[in-house]
Amino acid sequence: MLDQIGNSAITSLGFFWKAGWAFIVGYFISSMIQAFVPKDKMVKYMGNAKLKSVGLSTFFGAISSSCSFAALAAGKSLFKKGAHFVPTLAFLFASTNLVIELGILIYIFLGWQFVIAEVIGGIILIFVTWLLVTLTYPKNLVHEAREKVDDGGMEENFNWKQKIKTKQGWLQVGHEFVMNWQMVWKEITIGFTIAGIMATFISDNTWKSFFLVENQDSFLKVMENAVIGPLVAMLTFIGSMGNIPIATILASSGVAFAGIMAFIYSDLVVPPIIAVHKKYYGMKTALYIAAIFYVSIIVTAIGMHYSFTALGLLPNSANQIMTESPFQIDYTFWLNIVFVFVAILALYLNKKFKQLHQHHTMMQMEGDSKVKTISTYICIGYLLFGLLVKLI
Fold first, then answer.
1. Cβ-based neighbours of 210, under 8 Å, separated by 6 or more
2. Nearest Cα to Cα of residue 198 among 238, 231, 245
3. Over the stretch 75-114, which tens digit does the pLDDT of each residue have?
4. Which pairs with CB-CB distance under 8 Å and at least 24 residues apart come from 127-130?
């Protein structure tokens, strides 16, 4: 048992080592966008459910933050300021599933086919959502939600061309970088720890039985995997960034492409996200949003599976990134070294930002809780204990 704990801890730390530089570069780019792209100007392009509005909302989301709860807060403010319900949903999904850092992480852990499926499938999923909402548009629910939601205080009307040339603008980049990490580090820690435990303690046979792996890629298996994938994601209680290593384990165990993509797409149907939607818009609207996304995820995942099959692009399995020790002097080592200095620079900029804004206080992050905090520190303790066991 002690040996297994040690192995799971090393696996979790190896996962994070492989992804460390990707997190830094992704969040630094995201921080630049957050600092230099005024969200107030987005609202005027999101006022209806037409193709242009939905397309622009998808683009705005894709260049926004990948933190689910930050995306929820931004979406709430946009909705209150006049954004239509459909573009708001498009913004939410794109800001959690079509961002650069997630794409890099998927490429490292799963491979290029999954990146293509994430991008193309994400766009298709948004338009499936658009169609479903159009067919079932809950006018009364949307009206009640708009009356219920508070403003959120998002005021960002500035000229980005001027701001990008200022010292203040770049100090804010560092501040946004630190805030992004403060919002996601708990989910990442929990997700990567769970991934190491699952990779070590749960046998392939368990996953094969749960996902009907022995049925090869029959329609029954593809359908079942697409339906079950989001439910497994719900049980993890974490977002897409923390779930990618777990998706790797599922892929390596023979889960269908549809099931893996459905699992990755399910960032916005996990219980903490539904709880925040309930707080913002009310229970009925929160359940409606979750149901719409769930159906859209299943339809899109199945469609991507058979499209990739027809094109001969269906991957056999995920990248086997842990076949050898991850702690080697290779490209990962050097990229981590380079981007550690980028992180140090961001920390320095944040320090200067806080010195200039002594009365600045960080907003309480929606979705955070004592349970999540306790779980995070339990995971840290587990990793330290496992590492100690392995060293001894």
1. 228
2. 245
3. 887 888 888 999 999 999 998 888 888 888 898 888 899 9
4. 127/54, 128/296, 128/299, 128/300, 129/86, 129/89, 129/90, 129/93, 129/292, 129/293, 129/296, 130/49, 130/54, 130/86, 130/90
**So what's the pLDDT on residue 80?**
83
Q: Which of 20, 9, 1 is nearest to 383 (CA)?
A: 9
Enter the tokens of residue 314: 């269906």
Write the pLDDT tens digit of every residue in 188-205. Answer: 888 889 888 887 888 777
Cα–Cα distance list, 184 to 71, 134, 180, 187, 202 (Å): 12, 33, 6, 5, 26
Residues 6+ apart with CB under 8 A from 144: 281, 282, 284, 285
High-pLDDT (> 90) share of the chain, %: 35
- pTM of the shown model: 0.80
| Cβ within 8 Å of residue 138, ≥6 positions away | 285, 288
